[in-house]
Amino acid sequence: MINLETPKKQAALVDQAHQLAMNMLRPISRRYDRAEHEYPKELDMLAALIDGVSETGATGGAGAGGVRRDERAEETGAAGKVRNGANLASVLSVAEMCWGDTALLLSMPRQGLGNSAIASVANEEQLERYRGTWAAMAITEPAIGSDSANITTTAVQDGDEYVLNGEKIFVTSGDRADSVVVWATLDRSLGRAAIKSFLVRKDNPGLKVERLEHKLGIRASDTAVITFTDCRVPAEDLLGSPEIDTRSGFAGAMATFDNTRPLVAAMAVGCARASLDLTRDLLEQAGVGIDYDRPAQNQSAAAAKFLQLEADWEGAKLLMMQAAWMADNRLPNSLEASMAKAKAGRVGSDVTLSCVQLCGTLGYSEAELLEKWARDSKILDIFEGTQQIQQLIVARRILGLTSSELK
């Protein structure tokens, strides 16, 4: 049975993440926001510390343990021992780190979104072989937007290699990571079922980082455009099975999103919490108290708005924890992962912008970090599937309709 409280065994990890966010990330947040594309060298020491914690088994890092299920998943989750494992630990620690700075969390070595794809899709031999890699994830293309099923990057087998051709945009950590998980199609005529992911190393011939984007937010994180021109990839670096199963369709590839969407939800939860905490302090300094023992309608307009924002934030956090808990317990969580991402992405933007408004000139100026958090949070409602895409996925799951039946 699920208990949506922070598990006791993970309390120390969550507290440690909060201390790191407060003492290491928050102090350098503004500096690297202004110095866009400059690598935050302070993260190397932090990454080494996280690697040490990961080796103890306390957490799997930002990539968590992946959404890996077997045929007994339902039975194990329902009747077996309840697990509070790597996925729940990851979302809780990611939320705390993003309380410090979302862009710096996204810049952490060996904690890229591509690592989540590896954790979800790779076979056991690949998991061991790729241990220690820092993997970006390349999905989005210039012409397809959020519709990952229409990927045009091709992968053609040539003996013991695949030859990749195509272009990927908005690749987080695309320049700094040492490898990239690339989504490509083996046969466009077979549609979604032929889409596979490949681990492509930066030194593979044919891979080129074309440019880095200048962005509204998360400026400490590099976002790249990458092209693949006759890029040769060993066949053993196709993640998971090379077989095209038209019956399962896009399910194998989508398992990656079941893992990464709760992580993005956690980023939004952490960034929004930072805004709420600072806003409450600033309001109290201005003489506007927040009384949790009185109805909102009996308090000032600012206090009532703040209480409403906190209620929305709580809902996002609980959905995030549910999606991660289900992954830990080997339960299908596609619906819950999309619900968490949709709710947290929207709440994150609403909360951070509302906090800017509540704090007036202090919120809009660079005297505080509120304006930065408002800029950072917007991407969390966009990448890994926009708000509209998440709502579409949720509707399909609830109504039991396929993608062709509900577009």
TrEMBL record:
Taxonomy, superkingdom: Bacteria
InterPro entries: Acyl-CoA_Oxase/DH_mid-dom, Acyl-CoA_Oxase/DH_mid-dom_sf, AcylCo_DH-like_C, AcylCo_DH/oxidase_C, AcylCoA_DH/ox_N_sf, AcylCoA_DH/oxidase_NM_dom_sf
UniProt keyword terms in alphabetical order: FAD, Flavoprotein, Oxidoreductase
Annotated EC: 1.-.-.-
Domain Acyl-CoA oxidase/dehydrogenase middle per the UniProt entry, residue ranges: 136-231
Broad enzyme group: oxidoreductase
Coiled-coil spans in chain: none
Pfam entry (one): Acyl-CoA_dh_1
Acyl-CoA dehydrogenase/oxidase C-terminal domain boundaries: 248-399
A GO molecular function held by the record: oxidoreductase activity
Family that this chain belongs to: Belongs to the acyl-CoA dehydrogenase family.
Protein's UniProt name: Acyl-CoA dehydrogenase family protein
Organism: Nocardioides astragali
Organism lineage string: Bacteria, Bacillati, Actinomycetota, Actinomycetes, Propionibacteriales
